[in-house]
Design brief:
The chain has about 220 residues and is α/β, with parallel strands linked by helices. Helices cover about 55% and strands about 10% of the residues. The chain has one domain. α2 packs across α3.
Length: about 220
């Protein structure tokens, strides 16, 4: 756990990067993809409203465990939950391809938030993620995202389950992070900023099926190890 001073400074930094707020959750933008900021705000609002509309119980969990949604580049994931002390969800928003499948992608984004909030609920019970239990915790969070997606249809839930539980997926991502480390983060920030500057806003995003090849209905998961 980080010292309280460091935690406080990080939250101050997110407040400084605040670009909006909705249902008591602060939106902060620390991404280089500045052209995507309006879309990040609008799509995040819509995803939260969708959860509230179709699944009030899981929406309460999102509100309880996510106080900040921070747009920033991540090395090999769509989102991650950094810990209950922060109550934040980091989202690499420019990985999400809304232009091709806007409704499906909105459900996927909402499922991401459900998944990350479940990490917070698990940590609240004093269960922290370790190498010995990481796969089990990820499985529980994926199961909650799948249950949420069943409110759309069974196929969306099945796609999420197929992609998230593909054999060897998380191990491969962990190995990549250990090998490339901070260079991967730097490259992701560089390409995110470059793509939006060249093509403009939403059209500069990568296809949702690229990178870790998570199917369009599935969206993505946490830090993904």
């Amino acid at each position: 756990m980080l010292p309280s001073f460091t935690q406080r400074r990080l939250k101050e930094y997110w407040e400084h990067s605040r670009v909006g707020e909705h249902v008591g959750i602060v939106f902060a933008d620390m991404s280089r993809a500045t052209d995507a900021q309006d879309d990040f705000i609008g799509r995040t609002r819509s995803a939260l409203d969708l959860i509230a509309q179709v699944d009030p119980r899981r929406f309460q969990r999102v509100q309880a465990h996510i106080k900040y949604i921070v747009h920033r580049e991540l090395p090999s994931a769509y989102a991650m939950y950094p810990g209950k002390q922060f109550q934040a969800c980091f989202v690499d928003f420019t990985r999400l391809h809304f232009e091709r499948h806007p409704e499906t992608m909105l459900w996927g984004y909402a499922a991401i938030l459900v998944h990350e909030a479940t990490h917070g609920a698990i940590e609240r019970f004093g269960i922290s993620s370790r190498r010995s239990n990481r796969e089990q915790i990820e499985g529980l969070c994926d199961a909650e995202a799948t249950r949420f997606l069943r409110r759309k249809n069974d196929r969306a839930a099945e796609l999420w389950d197929e992609v998230m539980n593909r054999p060897g997926r998380r191990a491969a991502l962990r190995a990549r992070w250990r090998l490339l480390g901070l260079f991967t983060v730097w490259r992701r920030r560089h390409t995110a900023g470059q793509s939006t500057n060249l093509q403009g806003g939403a059209n500069g995003r990568q296809s949702f099926s690229s990178k870790t090849n998570r199917a369009s209905a599935a969206a993505a998961s946490r830090r993904s190890p």
